[in-house]
Design brief:
The model has no long low-confidence stretch (mean pLDDT 85). The chain has strands at residues 5-11, 22-24, 36-39, 42-43, 50-53, 58-61, 71-78. It is built from no helices and seven strands. By secondary structure, it is mainly β. A hairpin with a 4-residue loop joins strand 5 and strand 6. The strands form two sheets. The protein has a four-stranded antiparallel sheet, with no helix packed on it. The chain has a three-stranded antiparallel sheet with strand order 2-6-5, with no helix packed on it.
Length: 94
């Protein structure tokens, strides 16, 4: 039986300080290979623009984001049935 999965979108914009390139995800641990990162609305390329660090529940950007830049991470986690919804809006203004 396959474990159910939930998708989470986490806004990391407040963590962008113009210096740090490593970002931790608080909604993890995420399933490796499911991480999608967006910088200022543009989808970044894995292993080119960022590198997943699932052992540390996060990722490392291959560049320095500037203060004021938007940074979003979307990923899947195994749904362990914790009793509250784990699906978060995709960011679309509908």
């Amino acid at each position: 039986m396959v474990a159910p999965k939930s998708t989470i979108t986490e806004d990391l914009t407040d963590s962008v300080d113009g210096v740090v390139t490593a970002f931790a995800i608080s909604g993890g641990p995420f399933i490796p290979g499911t991480l999608i990162v967006e910088h200022n609305g543009l989808r970044l390329r894995p292993d080119f623009d960022y590198v997943e660090e699932p052992t540390y529940d996060g990722f490392v950007l291959c560049f320095v984001a500037r203060v004021g830049d938007a940074l979003l991470a979307q990923f899947e986690i195994e749904d362990i049935g914790v009793g509250f919804p784990l699906i978060v809006a995709s960011g679309l203004d509908c």
